[in-house]
């Protein structure tokens, strides 16, 4: 919980409340949804409405204000800034004017608190998992790979293309999926050309994946940042984009690792199934183990539990999504009933005996 509490800087918090209206209400922006790693601000609003139903009607200002207050008090320290503290108090007075009852205010904030904490916690867990993958990759980096990443840099600091060594670690990267993944509302971001994005991604890769070799990349990174500044001429925006690209690098590295692991598991599954089959043929229990063989041969994708009952648990996964058979976020509990005290390498060792 302490990690969640300190996840938003005072500077970012001030930015979020900067558009406060005269009546004290706050407007929910894409900045908040981005900070919580949520697809859109509408998703946050729906999470609150799904609990209260029609009780809040369509009072978007009320929900916006409550969500931002919860975001600030759960992910930042509002007492560190007199300006921030004043705006928070003004927003609370707005809620009091709209709802009159302290009980209603507490009920609303209790729910918006839960929404914020759920999303913030999931984001932190996801980022830590991705960082673990990045650290694994860092251990495999060679001098040759570093050279191949930076040797294609142009003399002025830009990168015409992304090194093949980077795509080996991250998978295919296109301008479309980069620009759409960078959740920055500034319209200029959508107009950047390929060279700008390639330079951002390569620099982000150097910062994130090649971090342990930072001293060898100082000159190249500085040249890249200088060139980017000549193209954008906005230090704050440049920093924001680079941070977003570093997150994209970590996410794509993690996804690539998962894909590789799943491919290995699928290949290994066939071999393990054959091992069971051969062993089973020498026993009287062949038919029973034959069933296991066919299961192991084709690793199954977890199914979803449809027709979930609506309730506060639907904050993160809405009732509509839970009822959709195509939606596979909620895993079938049957896939969590057994814990095995062995690793994939252990089983491979058995197979090779």
Automatic annotation (TrEMBL):
Composition bias type Basic and acidic residues, residue spans: 11-24
Ranges of compositional bias, category Polar residues: 1-10
* UniProt-annotated stretches for the region Disordered: 1-24
Q: What is this protein called?
A: Uncharacterized protein
What organism, scientifically named, is this protein from? Rhizophagus clarus
């Amino acid at each position: 919980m302490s990690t969640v509490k300190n996840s938003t800087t005072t500077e970012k918090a001030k930015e979020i409340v900067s558009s406060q209206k005269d009546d004290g209400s706050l407007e929910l922006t894409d900045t908040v949804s981005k900070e919580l790693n949520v697809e859109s601000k509408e998703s946050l609003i729906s999470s609150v409405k799904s609990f209260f139903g029609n009780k809040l009607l369509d009072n978007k200002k009320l929900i916006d204000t409550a969500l931002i207050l919860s975001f600030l008090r759960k992910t930042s320290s509002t007492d560190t800034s007199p300006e921030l503290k004043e705006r928070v108090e003004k927003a609370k007075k707005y809620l009091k004017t709209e709802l009159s009852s302290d009980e209603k205010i507490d009920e609303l904030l209790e729910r918006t608190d839960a929404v914020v904490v759920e999303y913030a916690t999931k984001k932190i867990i996801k980022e830590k998992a991705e960082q673990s993958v990045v650290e694994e990759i860092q251990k495999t980096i060679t001098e040759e790979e570093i050279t191949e990443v930076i040797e294609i840099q142009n003399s002025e600091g830009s990168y015409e293309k992304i090194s093949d060594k980077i795509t080996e670690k991250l998978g295919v990267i296109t301008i479309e999926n980069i620009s759409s993944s960078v959740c920055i509302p500034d319209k200029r971001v959508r107009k950047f050309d390929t060279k700008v994005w390639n330079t951002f991604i390569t620099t982000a890769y150097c910062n994130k994946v090649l971090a342990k070799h930072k001293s060898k990349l100082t000159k190249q990174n500085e040249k890249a940042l200088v060139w980017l500044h000549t193209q954008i001429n906005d230090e704050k925006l440049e920093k924001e984009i680079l941070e977003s690209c570093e997150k994209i690098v970590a996410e794509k590295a993690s996804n690539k690792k998962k894909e590789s692991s799943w491919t290995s598991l699928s290949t290994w599954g066939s071999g393990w199934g054959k091992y069971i089959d051969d062993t089973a043929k020498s026993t009287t229990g062949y038919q029973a183990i034959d069933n296991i063989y066919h299961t192991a041969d084709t690793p199954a994708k977890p199914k979803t539990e449809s027709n979930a009952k609506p309730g506060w648990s639907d904050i993160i996964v809405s009732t509509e999504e839970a009822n959709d058979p195509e939606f596979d976020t909620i895993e079938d509990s049957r896939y969590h009933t057994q814990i095995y005290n062995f690793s994939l390498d252990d089983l491979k060792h058995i197979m090779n005996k």
